[in-house]
Amino acid sequence: MIRAYTSKDKEELVALLRLNTPQYFDESEEADFIEYLDNRLEDYFVVEDNREIIGSGGINYFPESKLACISWDMVHPNFQGRGVGKQLTLHRIEHIKKNPAINLIVVRTTQLVYKFYEKMGFDLEKTEKDFWAKGFDLYQMQMTLEK
């Protein structure tokens, strides 16, 4: 089940981030994630299985640029490779498509998972070494929405 984030989910989401550190996130990113949840959140969704949060991901909007960014995607390690990330990404793409002011979706990810977004239809736009932290390169990708 995918539902909207509530502040009651924060502790469980920080724990989920820690489960994905250091494989997919650097320790230094935890403070950024908490800042995001507290102050930069627009749309954020959680995936639940038996009342346990097993995935999450957000959307931020930049209507002046006609774009939306999907961000802070993570899936519980025990559920990776089972379609949770795909389901969550498709959910957000469909959510974004309902906004007629948006015609481009951007995701800023790492070399570790950019192939996942490539399979979802995103095109690689640029890379930058050690962008997020040492060993975590930026892979900026985009998808143009058909209107």
UniProtKB/TrEMBL annotation:
PROSITE patterns per UniProt: GNAT (PS51186)
Domain N-acetyltransferase positions: 1-146
InterPro entries (UniProt xref): Acyl_CoA_acyltransferase (IPR016181), GNAT_dom (IPR000182)
Pfam families in the cross-refs: Acetyltransf_1
Gene3D superfamilies: 3.40.630.30
GO molecular function list: acyltransferase activity, transferring groups other than amino-acyl groups
Superkingdom in the source lineage: Bacteria
Swiss-Prot/TrEMBL keywords: Transferase
Protein name: N-acetyltransferase
Protein species of origin: Pontibacter diazotrophicus
